[in-house]
Amino acid sequence: MALWGGRFSQGADSRFKQFNDSLRFDYRLAEQDIQGSMAWARALVKVGVLTAAEQGKLQQAMEVLLASVQQDPQQILSSDAEDIHSWVETQLIAAVGDLGKKLHTGRSRNDQVATDLKLWCKAQGELLAASITALQQGLVASARANQAAVLPGYTHLQRAQPVTYAHWALAYVEMLERDYSRLQDALKRLDTSPLGCGALAGTAYAIDREALALDMGFSGATRNSLDSVSDRDHVVELMHVASLSMAHLSRFAEDLIFYNTGEAGFVELSDAVTSGSSLMPQKKNPDALELIRGKTGRVVGAQMGMLMSLKALPLAYNKDMQEDKEGLFDALDTWHDCLDMAALVLID
């Protein structure tokens, strides 16, 4: 089901529908779409669009839907809905009848998806911050366990002065601390709600957007509706934080790949994070570290792609912005996986 179509006399070509639909990736915003819809329903009561009884009925249905999605998010993909917003509305209509259609009153998918994506970024940011901290703790523990170990320090990849292993490990703690700080800065800047901005010029209802923002856990509401529905700075910022952190992880990986070589022999990587050769049984390949190094280009490439998608876009919303999600999801997933894998590499 599409949330539009009033002026159209025929359906979309199946090839266009496949090209245009976003459910195959924006299904990951299901929880956020439902959470935002719960808050919107409460706001609609305050302006007289919904009665308290109607809101209660919708709330109950959305709670059931949220629990179902949390248990099995993949169920969404069996639908032919255009996007996650259409899917949620379809499910609500099935649960509560035409009352489900009233929920979209005064709201556009433009402010809805912008809100969903910010809520998702906030949640992912917490997970990423925790993974950065865990890797820092792993580096400190490894440094503490090997305080007496000495290895060559390098400049120009030439042996320069002796340093301790602990000093080397703590250098990456500092890099990760800057990554953590940049992540917190980005999360602080994105912590404003665009809900209530409509398609581009606000809504006809006297929605208290500040109260609505606080209800969803934001620090406040955005100020300009044109900017709010077309702002993807937070997407680029998070991708940049991920790219720079991945550059740090790539350096970490390269150091350990070299230190693990037969020529250097400073460290030996665990069997748990290495693989062997089908032809040469003496080999112990640092696959985990090589993949961290290789995936860095993937994350940086996603950031560059997003910047090019945004370049020269006129105000306000354009369908180009649908390209924000796949790159962002993949970049942050990859960064998260690499942070966790780097921590695993440090375990004896």
UniProtKB/TrEMBL annotation:
<comment type="pathway">
    <text>Amino-acid biosynthesis; L-arginine biosynthesis; L-arginine from L-ornithine and carbamoyl phosphate: step 3/3.</text>
</comment>
<dbReference type="GO" id="GO:0042450">
    <property type="term" value="P:L-arginine biosynthetic process via ornithine"/>
</dbReference>
<feature type="domain" description="Fumarate lyase N-terminal">
    <location>
        <begin position="6"/>
        <end position="301"/>
    </location>
</feature>
<dbReference type="InterPro" id="IPR009049">
    <property type="entry name" value="Argininosuccinate_lyase"/>
</dbReference>
<dbReference type="InterPro" id="IPR020557">
    <property type="entry name" value="Fumarate_lyase_CS"/>
</dbReference>
<keyword id="KW-0456">Lyase</keyword>
<keyword id="KW-0028">Amino-acid biosynthesis</keyword>
<dbReference type="InterPro" id="IPR022761">
    <property type="entry name" value="Fumarate_lyase_N"/>
</dbReference>
<comment type="similarity">
    <text>In the N-terminal section; belongs to the lyase 1 family. Argininosuccinate lyase subfamily.</text>
</comment>
<dbReference type="InterPro" id="IPR008948">
    <property type="entry name" value="L-Aspartase-like"/>
</dbReference>
<dbReference type="InterPro" id="IPR024083">
    <property type="entry name" value="Fumarase/histidase_N"/>
</dbReference>
<dbReference type="GO" id="GO:0004056">
    <property type="term" value="F:argininosuccinate lyase activity"/>
</dbReference>
<dbReference type="Pfam" id="PF00206">
    <property type="entry name" value="Lyase_1"/>
</dbReference>
<dbReference type="GO" id="GO:0005829">
    <property type="term" value="C:cytosol"/>
</dbReference>
<protein>
    <recommendedName>
        <fullName>Argininosuccinate lyase</fullName>
        <ecNumber>4.3.2.1</ecNumber>
    </recommendedName>
</protein>
<dbReference type="InterPro" id="IPR000362">
    <property type="entry name" value="Fumarate_lyase_fam"/>
</dbReference>
<keyword id="KW-0055">Arginine biosynthesis</keyword>
